[in-house]
Amino acid sequence: MPWSMFNQDGRRKYLTHAEMQSFLHAAEQCSPEVHSFGWMLAVTGCRISEALAMTRENIDFETKHVIIRCLKKRGKQVFRAVPLPVGMLDMLSDWFDAGKLPDGPLWPWSRMTGYRRICEIMDDAGLTGECATPKGLRHGFAVMAIQAKVPLNLVQRWLGHADIKTTAIYTSAMGAEEREIAARMWDVSGIRRSGKTRNNTNKNQEKLQKKYDKSTEIHKITEINIKEKPSNNYTFSEKKEITKLKNEEEFHDESKIYTPPCLMIQFWLYCNRSYQSKTFNVPFHDPIY
After folding, report:
1. Tally of structural domains, the chain
2. Over the stretch 99-136, which tens digit does the pLDDT of each residue have?
3. Are 155 and 222 contained in the same domain?
């Protein structure tokens, strides 16, 4: 039976991106040995036994890779190269230059000691649960790689999986794209972040009120200057005010505009909107006072 990304209680087994960052920050406060060990598991997704078998020769500063021996391939000498970030390479370089490295494995600990070191960092980072383990780091690395659109076959090689179906299980973790799709669904159904449904009627009324208030300010001067005045007697400033009024964006929607008191302005705006939409299908209605 294939394993799942969640345990029997429905809790995830992998660390999220934010939790991985917390782990890496907590590891920085430890000794160079523990710091480098925690980072190696986090940035390569290697198994704890694979990290404990690493020597100085496995770090290739030229190609910026670590060469990991796949210990699960019994009876076979199988290696895989996993790229290392610059921060990890700099930290290893400083540690190597200090000249305090053992001749054999970089971390000459037992498996249980290595496990405890990781759990101590998790505790310092405030992380708990089944995801706060070396396996949680491995799963978290895989999930972040998938969500970063790393090709599945490349993730398979980095993790040392024999079957790509095992790697494909990590695609079940929810990523940013899936959350964005769900957000669009919630937006269509009117669910806001507060958990309350959006009242479209009230929202539209608020928009209309804002348009009305803005339009009222625009028309204050216009009403005084050109009300009940023949169009052929408009002064230059009055014509300029009408032109400004005509170009306002609020007058592009026939159903939501504020109706000016001057019939001439209404007709002018109607013609302008009709010309912009290249149609005169919308009838012009006389104002009702």
Report:
1. 2
2. 777 778 999 999 999 999 999 999 999 999 989 999 99
3. no
